[in-house]
What does this fold into?
Amino acid sequence: MSNIDRAHSPAWASLPVIGLNEDPDGYDIDARTPNGEQHLQAFAERSAAARQAAGLQARTVSYADHSLAVADVFRPGHGTVRGTVVFVHGGYWKGAGRPNRAFLAPAWVAEGVQWVNLGYPVAPETPLPEICRLTRGAMLAMMRGDAPFGGMDGPIVLSGNSAGAHLVAHALLEPQLQAAAAGRLAGCMLLSGLYDLEPLVSLPANAWMRLDARLAAELSPLRHDVPSLDAPVLVTVGADEPDAFIGQSRAYARHLLGRVEIDYREVDGRNHMTMISALESPDAVLGRIVAGWLGLRADGQ
It folds into this structure.
């Protein structure tokens, strides 16, 4: 990080990397996010209603031999599909939250965008390396249009929050995915992610992650070379999130700086849960950027 050219770097590149190891409680999202359970309940209720939205076709496809290795695909009932957004849910790799992210889809589908909520088997029953392998394979199949992900029309945006942001960032390390993404990937939107897993080895979260130092390094996007991408990346985090998550996001954005088209944003007034709804429509605070990548808006800002 010391080799950053401060004279020619964006202002965010000089922000201090805070909280990675200083505050172990900073990784305890349940304790540090106000009204977390209420937000999750609201996601579930809104998602149940979203599946009944007019003009929305929904199907669930299985991409591996596991009941949670499935994706919910929400597609416009009529008209041309203008692109696809893939969203990988969070939950600290142990939460099977895919069904309760359906509320993100209707506003995008109404604008002709296909929305895919990618689920995955969870820890501790499924080891983290296997979760990474399965989700990486699913994203590769989407980029290629391979079964069971036919109909991935138009440009594709990869997005995810928390553990989902980690899984997207880790998948992008795969050379085959980088090759398949060339000319197809419109952008990557990484919300509130964890990119260096080493601090988690000594925390209660390791009860289900089951990492040692070697495995943590192997699975940390921050510890690897920057992927070769021709699409923009936005690393973003809520300004009201714990310092550990802010520090992780700052560190990863700086890791990418100068090697890919990268921007970084801390969203005022958002915490770990409310960041998710910042993607719920093409007019939402982060949705506008995705809409710009897909060509839905003249200005994605």
